[in-house]
Every structure is written in C-alpha cells, then in structure tokens.
Amino acid sequence: MRVLVAASIVVVIALIAVGFFWVNRPQLVSILAPPPADFPRDSFSHEAFESVLGLYLDDKGNVDYETWHSTPDSVARLDAYLAAVSLYSPDSTPERFTSRNEELVYWIQGYNAYVIKSVLDHWPIDSVTDVKAPIEAVTGLGFFYRLRFKFGGVAYSLFSVENDKIRGQYRDARIHFVLNCASESCPVLRPELPTGPELDTLLQDAAMQFVSDPRNVSIDHEAKKITLSTIFKWFRKDFINDLQLHGRSTNRGLIDYVASVAPDDLRSELDGTDGYELVFREYDWAINSSDL
Predict the structure, then answer these.
(1) pTM given for the model
(2) Domain range summary for the chain, segments of one domain joined by +
(3) Phi-psi map region of 190: left, alpha, beta (phi>0 left; psi -120 to 50 alpha)
C-alpha cells in the first residue's frame, strides 16, 4: 500500500513538472527582416544598431521607447541588425570575428539589442517583469528565460547568453557594467562599444562610472554601513575571481573589488571602512524609459 501511495505521489509530481514546462515552453522571437543592405560580407558590423540606438538614448543612458516604438523605420533598422545577429555569430561564422574583443562585443550588443526588441514588442510596459510566463515561478521568468532569440542560427534565452556565453567564455567582471536589462538598476546603455583595443579602456571607465554612482555604492560612516548594488551580490564570484586573476587582495571581498575600479576619492574613503556592515540595495526593475 505504501509503495502504491509513494508511486502515485511520484506520478503526480512528474505530471505537475511536465505541465509546468509545457505551459512555460520556450517562445521563439522571430526576426523576419533581412540584414542591412550594406552589411559587410566578411566581418560583423554593429553600425546599424548603434546608429539607431543613438537616436533614442539620452545622456543618462535611458531609452525613449515610446518614440522608438512609434517610428516604424527605426523598428525596422533594429530588426535588420538583429537579422544579422540571427544569421552570424562567433560560433557559426568564426571567420567574421578576428579577435576576442570582436566576439565579446557581438554577444554584448546582441544581448542589449534583443532586450530593446523585447521591450518594444511588449510596449507599453512599466517593467521587464511585466512580460510574464504563464506560470511565473521566479521574477523575470517570462522575459529572461522563456523568450528565445537566435544568435548565429541557435536559439538562446537572455539568461543563457549572459551566463553561458558572456560570463562563461570571457570571464571579465567588467561586462556587468555594460550589459543592460532595460531596468533602472542596470548599468547605463552606451551609444557604442569599440571592438578594438579601446574596449579595455571603455570597460574600465564603465566600471568606474558604475561604482561612482551613489545608487550603486554608498558609504554611511555614521551607521558604519556600505550599501552596494545587488549586481555585486548576484555575481560576487565573478568579482572575487577578477581580483584573484589580477593578483589583488581579496581580504575585504567585494569592497576590494570596488576599490580596485573606483576613482581615487572613493578608494581613499573605502580604506577607512574596516568592520563596516555590507548591505545590498533592492533592485529597481522599473523600465529605464526616457522621454526625449
């Protein structure tokens, strides 16, 4: 009798799991447009994306989604760029990417462009968390896990691109300061990313800019408390590994990482914070929308 009960429970659990994955099965976002007419034959260009992005990006890195959504030509230009992302990738056409930086920028800009595409497809929304799966078991399941996008002919979720392709392959903690999830607590979008040696300088500047924003790093000396962006909590392993890779101290954990990319005044201020409590600011998922 007990065996039958146990077997019945297992069957019920299995049916529930199958039902969950069936209703939340992947949803492919198809790009029906052709690539830009002037797209290069033997390399990969981000000009189509960066030129249209610049039209709707304000000086704070926020996006005027309302106007973009209402401008068919601009929507078409984004789709043309994503058609190229869908066709080519460092995996499917490695001959188009001759350096590590070219590969990395492909994944970052492809990710950022598909995020914008998804916001425009569902506009108007107040947050990417409004794009829900039928059963939203975790925050962002519909937007970051269920939706699928083609990169070089292979469909990935945004979660997979960030974690398997970008974090998993390139192991540079500074990527967390240029990936944008269309939310207020995300790092700002940048009008362009260089694919040459200048990328290292941009990533370093992006890291410094991020930690210099009091919304991401703040020190309360009276309360002896340091408040960090939740990004540092989510990806703590990446930041500590970065310190170890460059032979830097990890005695203070995340504080050592922040100090390693901070401007001189913030670094000096952090030097006097031994024993301070470390807390993380609640992530703001409100859409990073701007009215230009």
Answers:
(1) 0.92
(2) 27-201, 209-281
(3) beta
